[in-house]
Design a protein that fits this description.
The structure holds two protein chains of two kinds. Chain A has a domain of about 35 residues. By secondary structure, chain A is mostly helical. Chain A is flat. Chain A is about 40% helix and about 10% strand. Chain B is mainly beta. Chain B has a single domain, classed as Beta Barrel (Porin). A 16-stranded antiparallel beta barrel of chain B has the order 2-3-4-5-6-7-8-11-12-15-16-17-18-19-20-21. The relative contact order of chain B is 0.13. Classes of the chains: A mainly alpha, B mainly beta. Chains A and B meet through helix 2, helix 3 and strand 1 of A and strand 1, strand 2, strand 4, strand 5 and strand 6 of B.
Chain lengths: ~80, ~375
């Protein structure tokens, strides 16, 4: 590989190093004692997994789109 | 050709729960659900049981059993085959292992139908960071499916396979003391027999009704990309609203948008009600047609409704009642839940051939209305 071929990798590593260097400086702007509302069951992103799993199944067997629901799918010949 | 029925929507996925969220293992709980779908001449009902149990402080297992009891006399079945009844059974077993702020999860999903067998393995890693404000997860799913064909209850000498690979990346972010944002990306790749072995395409002919059916032919590969965002906000008077958007596109030229809005309102100490609106729209697959001009007019042929262009609106609502605990000390809490969704799909290029018309290609577009009901009990222990 030519010397110039290493530039994208070097840039990627450099960007990653800069980002990671910033990680240590990040202070949580919502303290643990300020998360009362977030801990309320009505703020759960998936309060009833058995129900949301079923509804995802209903939609996916009738639609062309799939994925990015935050779940894991198994195969099925359903319709 | 006589066929047992038409019931395939290949590569349809039976989802199983969410990817792991680091730092906290899921609560010990049991859910018993009965589901009922009724629409378009199809009724599907059955149970689902989900059990989550922490074995130790850092190791939990999840098991799910799900059944579809299907009675079908859909438009495709009525026009091209005969009504049928059958069952699908799906079982899964998964684990989550917590190590500091990292959670490892994995499992297996097994699905059995008379003409379709599926095995799926999955593994994911998620990590809490930035004072637990951020959670990043990555996952990989691999599936191996067998596709068969059944004719009037008799399994035919027809054996095909599908390989599936999915890659997922997710980020959950606490934005403020009242709001959350999640991002999910998933790449999907399927190879093999992606056809529906029962459905047919139709083309213009000189037959009495003006058209004739021919076998569908799908490409043997399909790669898709899905991207979603979800936002949830806690309102000042103890209620929450949420909104989400998903973008999807694939190599079959399907392009879809999904929008969802939800509202959750507790009432007193024992009741929670919620309502959702979901809008979905998709563009047709490049090789799809409701009516081809002549026999073998293209390399690939499909008349599956799932690949047609359509809009759909789903209106839903649920009620949760927290049951009073009177007898069992091991039971922390339990709820009784009912949910109803009304699904309405308006197809833009799939015609209802059962309605008399002046000729092929002039029939009205098909409309599917369905009622989806769920009743379930949940118990935390």
């Amino acid at each position: 590989m030519s010397r110039g071929g290493h530039w994208p990798l070097a840039l990627l590593l450099g960007a990653a190093a800069l980002l990671l260097a910033g990680c240590g400086a990040v202070q949580p702007w919502v303290k643990p004692y300020e998360r009362e509302h977030l801990a309320d069951p009505i703020m759960s992103l998936n309060p009833n997994p058995v129900s949301s799993t079923y509804l995802d199944h209903v939609f996916e067997t009738r639609e062309g789109a799939r994925g990015a629901t935050g779940g894991v799918g198994g195969g099925c010949g359903c319709n | 050709m006589s066929k047992h029925g038409i019931r395939f929507g290949l590569a349809g996925l039976g989802c199983l729960g969410a990817l792991a969220h680091a730092g906290v293992l899921p609560d010990d709980r049991v859910d018993l659900l009965w589901h009922d779908y009724d629409g378009g001449g199809i009724q599907v009902e059955g149970p689902s049981v989900l059990i989550q149990k922490k074995i130790t402080d850092d190791f939990a297992v999840t098991a799910n059993y799900y059944t579809d009891l299907i009675t079908s006399a859909s438009l495709d079945v009525v026009t091209q085959a005969s009504a049928y009844k059958e069952q699908r059974h799906q079982g899964s077993l998964g684990f989550e292992f917590l190590n500091g702020k990292t959670t490892y999860s994995g499992g297996e999903i097994h699905s059995v139908e008379p003409d379709y067998l599926s095995n799926t393995g999955y593994f994911s890693i998620s990590q809490d960071m930035f004072g637990d404000l951020t959670n990043v997860s990555m996952g990989f799913t691999r599936g191996w499916d067998w596709v068969g064909r059944v004719n009037h209850g008799v399994v035919q000498n027809f054996h095909q396979s599908v390989d599936r690979r999915n890659w997922q990346v997710g980020v959950s972010q606490i934005l403020t003391r009242n709001s959350l944002l999640t991002f999910n990306y998933e790449a999907t790749d399927s190879e093999g027999y992606l056809n529906n072995p029962y459905r047919n395409a139709r083309y213009v002919s000189s037959s009495g009704i003006g058209y004739t059916y021919e076998e569908e032919r799908y490409p043997h590969t399909r790669t898709g990309n899905a991207l979603s965002l979800e936002y949830k906000y806690y309102l000042p008077y103890r209620a929450s609203i949420d909104g989400s958007y998903r973008f999807y596109t694939d190599t079959w030229d399907i392009l879809a948008h999904t929008f969802t809005l939800g509202y959750t309102q507790p009432i007193g100490q024992s009741w929670i009600v919620d309502g959702t609106v979901r809008y979905y729209t998709q563009r047709q697959a490049s090789f799809y047609s409701d009516l081809y001009p002549y026999l073998n007019s293209q390399n690939f042929l499909a008349r599956d409704r799932e690949l047609a262009a359509f809009d759909s609106v789903t209106l839903g609502g649920g009620v949760t009642w927290q049951l009073p605990i009177t007898r069992y000390s091991w039971l922390q809490r339990s709820t009784m839940n009912f949910r109803y969704d009304r699904l309405s799909i308006h197809y833009k290029d799939f015609r209802d051939v059962l309605i008399p018309s002046e000729g092929p290609g002039t029939e009205p577009f098909y409309v599917l209305d369905a009622n989806v009901m769920q009743f379930f009990l949940s118990a935390w222990y």
